[in-house]
UniProtKB/TrEMBL annotation:
<comment type="similarity">
    <text>Belongs to the class-I aminoacyl-tRNA synthetase family.</text>
</comment>
<dbReference type="GO" id="GO:0004830">
    <property type="term" value="F:tryptophan-tRNA ligase activity"/>
</dbReference>
<keyword id="KW-0067">ATP-binding</keyword>
<keyword id="KW-0436">Ligase</keyword>
<dbReference type="InterPro" id="IPR002306">
    <property type="entry name" value="Trp-tRNA-ligase"/>
</dbReference>
<protein>
    <recommendedName>
        <fullName>Tryptophan--tRNA ligase</fullName>
        <ecNumber>6.1.1.2</ecNumber>
    </recommendedName>
</protein>
<dbReference type="InterPro" id="IPR001412">
    <property type="entry name" value="aa-tRNA-synth_I_CS"/>
</dbReference>
<dbReference type="GO" id="GO:0005524">
    <property type="term" value="F:ATP binding"/>
</dbReference>
<dbReference type="GO" id="GO:0005829">
    <property type="term" value="C:cytosol"/>
</dbReference>
<dbReference type="Pfam" id="PF00579">
    <property type="entry name" value="tRNA-synt_1b"/>
</dbReference>
<dbReference type="GO" id="GO:0006436">
    <property type="term" value="P:tryptophanyl-tRNA aminoacylation"/>
</dbReference>
<keyword id="KW-0547">Nucleotide-binding</keyword>
<dbReference type="InterPro" id="IPR002305">
    <property type="entry name" value="aa-tRNA-synth_Ic"/>
</dbReference>
<keyword id="KW-0648">Protein biosynthesis</keyword>
<dbReference type="InterPro" id="IPR050203">
    <property type="entry name" value="Trp-tRNA_synthetase"/>
</dbReference>
<dbReference type="InterPro" id="IPR014729">
    <property type="entry name" value="Rossmann-like_a/b/a_fold"/>
</dbReference>
<keyword id="KW-0030">Aminoacyl-tRNA synthetase</keyword>
Length: 323
């Protein structure tokens, strides 16, 4: 007998790093909307995280507003989910500092993101090195059971788990001060491929934006890289299966084997059917930006109360609470 469980908590953050694409949507964003009806949820805009790559204040400001509208448009409901901005809850950075003091450098040096930066011989700022620690603070502050993210964030959630364990060992005296979180990755959606067949990513220039207008969708789809074998264009199919059942698609792709242009045109129409209503909703929210900002601000106030209470407990545990 299946019974709905409402006792679980989910949390996730998203960087305001530009227009979201369908990889972000199917890999992460959609899950928040699906989960909000069944579970208590926290979703936030990770603006402080984004600082490691975004140093243009105008762009930062615009991106925050833009992602706020994106989330409202996909149906995130602030009545159900605590939806806020990381920088409105200064407790996150405070907790990150405390976690810094129980986290070793060799441990953080094993993080993929750090190793990638090192391999590229980048001048690595401390914020990039410390990125997983702030993320651990974001997560552990609210005690979620699950953290819905794309596969590339799995290691970060594991690091948060290790930091929770370490902190509990050092200061818990048998209590579990921080709950150990689990990453939640939908198997089929873990890596949505881009128009060049690699993982869809803003940094690869291979995306289909989630709120693209018809002409833009067309341009993106027509640019999908296909081989010259004349059979089934794998890169087209891999994206198409997000929008239509595989049973249907297999038949269509067999019938139209080799007809790349026709298959692409069909994909354009399927994506348009899916995106058009989202685009319209976003335009509605765009008409009232102060209203949208008020929602975000109220979410921040709610989150700050919860984070404030957690920090009281943490300060008590580490011994700095003398009054
Ligand atoms: P990008 O690589 O485009 O910069 P982000 O790093 O901003 O994407 O990722 C935001 C969220 O979307 C994360 O949870 C991430 O794991 C997820 N995500 C990003 N790209 C994909 C993809 N191609 N497939 C599935 N999930 C993705
Ligand atoms: N690092 C995540 C990303 O780039 C964003 C993020 C920040 C996050 N804090 C988080 C995700 C906490 C989940 C939980 O996508």
């Amino acid at each position: 007998m299946s019974k709905k469980v409402f006792s679980k908590v989910f949390l996730s953050g998203v960087q305001p790093s530009g227009k979201p694409h369908i990889g972000n949507y199917f890999g992460a964003m959609k899950q928040f909307v699906d989960l909000q009806n069944e579970h208590e949820g926290y979703v936030f805009i990770a603006d402080y995280h984004a600082l490691h790559s975004l140093r243009n204040p105008k762009e930062m400001n615009a991106n925050i507003k833009s992602i706020l509208l994106d989330y409202l448009a996909i149906g995130l409901d602030p009545e159900k989910v605590t939806f806020f901005k990381q920088s409105d809850v200064s407790e996150h950075t405070e907790l990150a500092w405390i976690f810094d003091t129980v986290t070793t450098m060799p441990f953080l040096m094993r993080a993929h993101a750090f190793k990638d930066a090192q391999a590229k011989n980048k001048e690595i700022d401390v914020g990039t090195f410390n990125y997983p620690v702030l993320m651990a603070a974001d997560i552990l502050m609210y005690g979620p059971d699950m953290v819905p993210v794309g596969a590339d964030q799995k290691q970060h959630v594991e690091i948060a788990r290790d930091i929770a364990e370490k902190f509990n060992n050092v200061y818990g005296q048998g209590d579990q001060i921080f709950k150990l979180p689990e990453p939640m990755i939908l198997k089929d959606m873990a890596i949505v491929p881009g128009t060049d067949g690699r993982k869809m990513s803003k940094s690869y220039n291979n995306t289909i934006p989630l709120f693209a207008e018809y002409e833009e969708i067309k341009k993106c789809v027509m640019s999908i890289v296909t081989d010259s074998s004349g059979g089934i264009p794998q890169n087209v199919y891999a994206i198409h299966k997000l929008f239509r059942s595989e049973d249907e698609l297999k038949k269509i792709y067999e019938e139209k084997s080799g007809k790349y242009k026709e298959l692409k045109e069909m994909l354009v129409e399927d994506i348009e059917k899916f995106i058009a209503p989202l685009r319209e909703k976003r335009k509605e929210f765009e008409k009232d930006i102060p209203g949208a900002l008020a929602i975000l601000k109220a979410g921040g106030e709610k989150a700050k109360k919860i984070a404030g209470a957690k920090m009281e407990e943490v300060r008590e545990k580490i011994g700095v609470n003398v009054y």
